[in-house]
């Protein structure tokens, strides 16, 4: 029996120009959601907390103090034609979770259709209502919406925004917060891929997030680590009051693991992606090829139709030319029109030739031996995730965070930012996280500023307060959340349909979302095409790979220079490459990496301070680190391994990848930066600690500068 549908608006917080929320249509929901929705106003009043009157950071701090459990509001967007798969997708979302944890899960499905397909959307929603009414594990709601086509495609970012700011998402945020959970929005794809981390035998990604929030991120890397026991959630009271509901708060069980000293509640947590099983992935790729072939064939057909029209126009102009004859003003006009038509035909023929080449490649991909392409692509994905982890050490929002494995604090999305009153939104089209990253960075800058403004207003010394603000702003620390952003791409990767990326990888030989070359990174670093003009990070990297530059950077005095001269040599070298490193004033950094605390129409308490990367020398040290990062890690690894092998051989030590202190000391590296606790340590463990060298070197150079 289907649930009765009530008239609850699904309009977002603010309208978007390319979407039309169907204001008079209801949210479609199962019984669990309907029950929560009916009681939410009472729950808000019964608690001592009101989301409207308290900021997100307050709830983050409260959750840390209470050691409160997280809740997850899954946000997914889908086309109305895919709704018949809802049951299978929900099953995949919940697979790997213990049944006791269903009470801290909610699912909000943003179902969309083109504005012209409202009738089809309505029919699909009625069918979907029957499906979700059978799901009793957790609250499920469907938010309908329509869109205008953007370049023949749905504006995915706008659809995500509508779902994120829907009343359904806000209802569950309010519910979980009043129940003393700390809710996170979990953005996912509408597919049946595994939500397990690492491989299909791993733990559900929600348990991995639990570990992060509890301050146990290092345990994620343990392949056979025991799954963390999650918080036991009390069932709804059997003794009902007159409203049929009694508020119950989450309680810890005796089995709960004791958290480490530094639990966190970041604004954002980002994971990576991995390919599905080989058999499943091959099916996905074949399906993708068929879709791509259909698109290509349609393009060719359209262009042929266009050419036929142009040939007809050409014939008309040529007959007019013969009819008029001679040389007069009319003939000159006709000749110009003929020239335009011929150019159009020529361009369309070139386009058809390109599309035919693409078609040939796609058809050949269907027939190829898979092994080589498959393994090459799989390795490329793994390396890409590792590169994102590396660059996230320099700035947490430098790498692109994949939307299908992204978490944000739901209480931050619930209302506007603390100062400018902006809401968190994705880019409307294209790479959705591009705009979202900027919004997250701005939001966090306002949270910090709001916190430290309060200290100044309470009479604390402004110089000391500014120092604390800048320290937090440039180290990813947060006085109430613990950390602002957390990225674990490689070790928190979940299964994702990568068929589109694979097909593009095969057609072009490049991973257009990858971070192994500088293309994506430069686009992430600078605001736009104008701002990145003149940037040549590859040149900087190539120069660095000369032996003298590497030795000087790591403080190896084989250039016969004293330490001060050595540092000056490096500084001068970096400053000479200012334009190539993007250090000119016109080469403005993206607001996802650098945001000024200077506010218009506000008292400029912290004028001159920046959240993230400051302009000037710090900017070029930052981009220099990016340019040399991979080369320097490779250099360190090769030389440490080489020295270790030589020392172990001379001492008769068996080759078990042990790395004595001398292997590092020979390179002139300061061991205190590596925080080595034992005289001997495995190579892989030691190398992972070497990332701190890059950070400490930047700080050292900044102080000298």
Structure description:
The chain has 705 residues and is α/β, with parallel strands linked by helices. It has helices at residues 31-46, 56-66, 86-94, 118-132, 156-164, 167-178, 205-213, 278-324, 329-367, 370-392, 410-414, 432-457, 462-473, 499-508, 518-525, 537-544, 547-553, 563-576, 617-651, 661-665, 683-689, 691-704; strands spanning 19-21, 28-29, 70-79, 105-114, 140-147, 182-187, 268-271, 273-274, 406-409, 477-478, 482-483, 485-488, 494-495, 594-596, 610-612, 658-660, 680-682. Helix 8 (278-324) runs antiparallel to helix 9 and helix 12 (432-457) packs antiparallel against helix 13 (462-473). The radius of gyration is 29 Å and the shape is globular. The N and C termini lie far apart (72 Å). The model is unreliable at 1-21, 223-260 and 665-695 (pLDDT under 50).
Radius of gyration: 29 Å
- Helix content, binned percent: 40-55%
Q: Terminal Cα separation, in Å?
A: 72 Å
What does the overall shape look like?
Answer: globular
Largest sheet composition:
9 strands, mixed
Would you tell me the overall average pLDDT? 78
Percent of sequence in beta strands: 5-15%
The number of distinct helices, counting runs of at least 4 residues, comes to: 22
Tell me how many strands there are: 17
Low-confidence stretches: 1-21, 223-260, 665-695
Pairing-aware structural class of the strands and helices?
alpha/beta
């Amino acid at each position: 029996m289907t649930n009765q549908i009530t008239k609850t608006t699904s309009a977002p917080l603010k309208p978007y120009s390319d979407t039309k929320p169907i204001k008079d249509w209801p949210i479609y929901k199962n019984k669990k959601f309907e029950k929560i929705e009916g009681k939410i106003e009472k729950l808000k009043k019964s608690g001592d907390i009101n989301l409207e009157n308290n900021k997100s950071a307050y709830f983050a701090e409260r959750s840390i103090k209470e050691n409160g459990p997280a809740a997850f509001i899954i946000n997914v967007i889908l086309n109305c034609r895919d709704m018949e798969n809802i049951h299978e997708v929900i099953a995949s979302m919940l697979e790997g979770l213990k049944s006791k944890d269903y009470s801290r899960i909610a699912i909000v499905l943003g179902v969309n259709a083109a504005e012209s397909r409202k009738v089809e959307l309505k029919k699909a929603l009625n069918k979907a209502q029957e499906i979700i009414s059978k799901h009793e594990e957790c609250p499920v709601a469907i938010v309908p919406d329509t869109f205008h086509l953007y370049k023949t495609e749905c504006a995915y970012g706008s659809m995500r925004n509508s779902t994120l700011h829907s009343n359904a998402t806000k209802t569950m945020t309010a519910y979980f917060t009043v129940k003393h959970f700390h809710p996170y929005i979990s953005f996912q794809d509408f597919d049946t891929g595994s939500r397990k981390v690492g491989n299909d035998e791993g733990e559900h990604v929600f348990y991995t997030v639990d570990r992060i929030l509890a301050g146990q991120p290092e345990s994620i890397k343990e392949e056979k680590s025991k799954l963390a026991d999650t918080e036991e959630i009390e069932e709804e009271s059997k003794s009902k009051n007159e409203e049929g509901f009694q508020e119950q708060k989450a309680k810890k069980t005796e089995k709960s693991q004791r958290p480490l000293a530094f639990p966190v509640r970041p604004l954002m947590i980002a994971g990576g992606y991995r390919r599905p099983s080989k058999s499943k992935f091959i099916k996905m790729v074949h399906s993708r090829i068929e879709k791509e072939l259909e698109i290509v064939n349609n393009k060719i057909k359209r262009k042929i139709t266009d050419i036929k029209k142009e040939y007809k126009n050409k014939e008309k102009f040529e007959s007019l030319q013969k009819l008029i004859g001679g040389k007069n003003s009319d003939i000159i006009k006709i000749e110009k029109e003929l020239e335009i038509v011929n150019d159009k035909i020529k361009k369309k023929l070139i386009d058809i030739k390109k599309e035919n080449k693409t078609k040939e490649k796609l058809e050949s991909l269907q027939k190829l031996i898979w092994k080589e392409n498959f393994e090459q692509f799989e390795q490329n994905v793994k390396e890409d995730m590792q590169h994102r982890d590396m660059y996230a050490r320099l700035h947490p929002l430098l790498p692109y965070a994949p939307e299908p494995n992204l978490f944000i604090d739901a209480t931050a999305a619930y209302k506007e930012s603390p100062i400018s009153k902006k809401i968190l939104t994705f880019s409307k089209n294209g790479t959705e996280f591009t705009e979202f990253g900027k919004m997250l960075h701005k939001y966090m800058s306002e949270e910090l500023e709001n916190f430290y403004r309060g200290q100044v207003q309470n009479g604390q010394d402004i110089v000391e307060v500014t120092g604390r603000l800048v320290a937090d702003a440039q180290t990813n620390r947060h006085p109430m959340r613990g950390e602002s952003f957390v990225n674990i791409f490689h070790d928190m990767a979940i299964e994702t349909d990568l068929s589109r990326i694979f097909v593009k990888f095969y057609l072009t030989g490049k991973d257009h979302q990858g971070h192994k070359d500088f293309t994506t990174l430069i686009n992430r670093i600078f605001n736009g095409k104008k701002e990145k003009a003149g940037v040549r990070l590859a040149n900087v990297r190539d120069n660095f790979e000369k032996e003298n530059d590497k030795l000087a950077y790591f403080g190896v005095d084989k250039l016969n220079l004293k330490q001060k001269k050595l540092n000056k040599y490096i500084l001068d070298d970096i400053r000479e490459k200012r334009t190539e490193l993007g250090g000119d004033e016109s080469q403005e950094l993206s607001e996802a990496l650098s945001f000024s605390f200077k506010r218009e129409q506000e008292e400029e308490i912290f004028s001159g301070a920046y959240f993230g990367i400051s302009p000037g020398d710090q900017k070029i040290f930052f981009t220099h680190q990016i340019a040399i990062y991979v080369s320097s890690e490779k250099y360190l690894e090769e030389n440490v391994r080489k020295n270790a092998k030589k020392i172990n051989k001379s001492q008769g030590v068996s080759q078990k990848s042990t790395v004595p202190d001398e292997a590092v000391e020979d390179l002139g590296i300061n061991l205190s930066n590596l925080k080595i606790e034992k005289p001997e340590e495995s190579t892989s463990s030691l190398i992972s600690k070497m990332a701190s060298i890059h950070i400490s070197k930047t700080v050292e150079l900044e102080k000298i500068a």
